[in-house]
Amino acid sequence: MKRFVFGVVFSLAIVSCQQKETPPVAKKESTPKEACEKPKTVKDADGFEMYQMTEMAALMEQMYVDNKRLRERIIKREAVGSFPEHYLKIHTAEMTDPSENDAFFKARAKAYIEAQKQLYADPKNAKVHFNAGIDACVQCHEQKCGGPLVRIKKLYIP
Predict the structure, then answer these.
(1) CA within 20 to 30 Å of 19's CA: 4, 103, 134, 145, which one?
(2) What is the mean pLDDT of each run of 10 residues along the chain (158 residues)?
(3) DSSP string covering 48-67
(4) pTM (2 decimals)?
(5) What are phi and psi of 85, to 5 degrees?
């Protein structure tokens, strides 16, 4: 009897571990807010899909990391350093959806760059300028791409 129970349990375990194919899901049309949430993927030599960031996505990731570090330096009242020139690529970097590079985006990008430049030029008011830069990010992402808003808002310095 023990062998029979063991055989049944073993058989169920084998059957339950087999990979089941799921039917493909039909893609829906994307709206502008969803445009930045869809990563580009490419298949590697082994057939695995790999995430490929656009120039703009990579730049924004770098800006996030830079601002996270800058936030800590401002809070600790340390020197802020010099303006990161790579931020200027925000005006020319390839976007996931080129139609998103419109007048609204350009205005928010300009506001962000101006706030950043003021931060480095006037470190005594770094917190005010830093938060103004984050405001520009939030305003843009509220209109264009809501995905990273929670993460961006955590950068604010109270």
Answers:
(1) 4
(2) 57 52 44 47 64 88 96 96 95 90 92 94 94 92 83 95
(3) -EEEE--HHHHHHHHHHHHH
(4) 0.68
(5) -60, -25
